[in-house]
Amino acid sequence: MSRVQRKRDERVRRIVAVAAEVFGERGYEASTLEEVAERLDVTKGSLYYYFAGKDELATAAIETLGTDWTERLEALATSTGDRPRDERLRALLREHIAIAVHEYPAALRLFLVPDSWPAALRMRIRELRRRHDLVFRREITAGVEAGDFAVVSVDATLQAMHATMSQAPLWCAHLAAEAREQAIDDLADTLVRLVSSPR
Amino acid sequence: MSRVQRKRDERVRRIVAVAAEVFGERGYEASTLEEVAERLDVTKGSLYYYFAGKDELATAAIETLGTDWTERLEALATSTGDRPRDERLRALLREHIAIAVHEYPAALRLFLVPDSWPAALRMRIRELRRRHDLVFRREITAGVEAGDFAVVSVDATLQAMHATMSQAPLWCAHLAAEAREQAIDDLADTLVRLVSSPR
DNA sequence: CCGAACTTTGACCCAAGAGTCAAGAGATGA
DNA sequence: TCATCTCTTGACTCTTGGGTCAAAGTTCGG
């Protein structure tokens, strides 16, 4: 790959990262290309050299963010060693929430639907979410089949976990640093109880 | 109150209801007064006779919706009779989710922060949420003190419940009618496990 | 150092949507 | 029926923000 090509890629990556930030903070409608450009110390027109328009930029932002995010979770799942199922699930939940809170503080807002994303984007978001859920779904069903876990319904359990995780960054944003770490632990511990057999 | 006065109030109520619908469906930014007016079979200008502007209308919508919603939950809490604590909590959760899904399908979107509501509104939203949480907080702490419930952290538990409930309408929207009822039950059953002592 | 390819700029266009208002249409009540 | 008060209209302005583009600036290989 030529030097020029590489530079371009780097540029694109940077733009997408900043765009993801803005879209994450403001939602689709309230984000302006002007602001994205400003944060990059560039003018709006320049963005159009790389992207056809707002939609395309938003798509790229979601695509990248969502993929990074999901791949990271999948990697986590394979790298987390063998241990009692509940401990394993807890570790996964904890790490996952921690990553969300620390590294993608605004990212998950992209995955809350209420904002009116363009229709094409919404489908892509749903797809990413499915892949994302799959990691936890596997853990849960395996645990249930082995008799280590008991759930009312796998779907409802996933739904509850997903909802909680996706709103965690919002909640934790208010808290001071130490309280935040505590909150992450608490959330993970709390969510594990969803799969443990009741007394 | 004069006949005229009453008519005006009725008019205002109607406007606010429709506005809440639109804001709920589209979010703040993507909603237009034009659309609100259209659904009312009126022109935009007419709205300005009753409200100073978009912000004020949105505030009124959130205020009304949030208050109705919260009062309804509070009423539910006092009307739900004495029974074992977990059954009581389950009933509350179930009813609450059911109301959300059936009667305010879009309403809770108003209470998800990601959309950029005007700053003044956000505070009001937070306040309503606090009042809203209080109902469940009371149930939980009472249960914990009595030794019937065990939680990792009351705050984390509330957070998980709130997140799940607030996203329930979105989830249930995809489902067919019977599946929806089942989903509501499952969610309630699932959430109750958050407070039951683990094995 | 030159020319070609790549990149950025800023002025510009345009549509959408918030907000205004004078004029008129309805109600109301004496 | 007239006078007044209430309400609605639709045409208007103004701002914002997406999108375009020719011209200027930058980079790079030869």
Name the biggest interface.
Answer: A-B, 38 and 39 residues
Most strands sheet of chain A: none
Q: What is the overall pLDDT average of chain A?
A: 90
Which structural class best describes the helix and strand composition of chain A? mainly alpha
State the order of secondary-structure elements of chain A, H for helix, E for strand: HHHHHHHH
Please indicate the percent range of residues of chain A in DSSP E strands (runs of 2 or more).
under 5%
Rg of chain A (C-alpha, Å):
19 Å
Which percent range fits the helix content of chain A? over 70%
> According to CATH, what is the class of chain A?
Mainly Alpha
Number of DSSP strands of chain A? 0
| Oligomerization category of the chains in this entry | homodimer
InterPro entries (chains A, B): DNA-bd_HTH_TetR-type_CS, Homeodomain-like_sf, HTH-type_TetR-like_transc_reg, HTH_TetR, KstR2_TetR_C, Tet_transcr_reg_TetR-rel_C_sf
Domain HTH tetR-type (chains A, B): 9-69
Keywords (chains A, B): DNA-binding
Protein name (chains A, B): TetR/AcrR family transcriptional regulator
Fold and architecture overview:
Two copies of one chain form a homodimer. With 199 residues, chain A is mostly helical. The first copy, chain A, has one domain (3-192): Tetracycline Repressor, domain 2, CATH 1.10.357.10. In chain A, 73% of the residues lie in helices and 0% in strands. The first copy, chain A, contains eight helices and no strands. The first copy, chain A, has helices spanning 3-26, 33-39, 44-50, 54-79, 85-103, 119-145, 154-173, 177-192. The longest helix of chain A is centred in the middle third of the chain and has 27 residues, at 119-145. The first copy, chain A, is elongated, with a radius of gyration of 19 Å. Chain A binds chain B through residues 26-27, 29-30, 109, 112-116, 151-153, 155-157, 159-160, 162-164, 166-168, 170-171, 183, 186-187, 189-191, 193-194, 196-199, and chain B through 26-30, 109, 112-116, 151-153, 155-157, 159-160, 162-164, 166-168, 170-171, 183, 186-187, 189-191, 193-194, 196-199. Chain A binds a DNA duplex (30 and 30 nucleotides) through residues 3-4, 7-8, 11, 32-34, 42-46, 48-49, 52-54. Chains A, B: Residues 9-69 form the HTH tetR-type domain.
